[in-house]
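Hi Y.,

Following your request, here is the sequence exactly as I used it, all 254 residues.
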Amino acid sequence: MTSPDRAAQIATALASVRERLSAACAAAGRDPDDVALLPVTKYFPAADVEILFELGCRDFGESREQEASRKVDELGASIGTEPVRWHMIGHLQRNKAKSVARWASSIHSVDSERLVTALQKAVGHAFEVGERSSELEVLIQVSLDGDTHRGGVEREDLAALAELVEGSDGLRLAGLMAVPPLGADPDAAFADLAEIHEGLLSRHPDATELSAGMTGDLEAAVRHGSTCVRVGTAILGSRPIASPVQSTDHISHN
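Below is the corresponding structure, written out as tokens. Let me know if you'd prefer a different format.
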């Protein structure tokens, strides 16, 4: 059962973040409807997702396949027939592609040809067995500093990867995602990302999505064209101490 105190806490925090995002859009001269707020629900229980759903949220970000799959299954009946979009925003191992293809509307962290191949095969299987009826939206994660250990394809390899996604059945190239380098100035990092995105759009004009900005730097991301800010901490608080951290969760996406 949902705690009234927890529901009130999340409602207050969500309202604050929505106001903050609206202010950021106003300061940047942008329409607030052009920037989506993606609550990051990783590490938090399905009950928190239900609270956010009641508060009007329909998109949720997860980064661990096993945890996300459990939530999707648990909430399938309780949320009902309202459309919900689950976003995979964390590093994905190829052997988890089949599971993610079952429930994800989009994946923000594609960074290798082998993962694209695995996702194409997994989505094809999901179509065949009736687990999905729409293409999987793919955002390519680009590394802004060349440190691919933190996730992301190197910028010189982006064009080839984008072409592969574009030509893959069941996948739709939606845009880019990036995380600023550790210790970097967010404005400089997101300005760099915006320039990379412009280059991508010149070849793939429909790849308009730009997933950038988290709790600490969403204003800078909005200034430089983000269409989706991934916010976890400012909405749900610090992750529960008891939450297990898997070795693949080596970068933060909220």
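Residues 4-236 form a domain with the TIM Barrel fold (CATH 3.20.20.10).

Thanks again,
Q.
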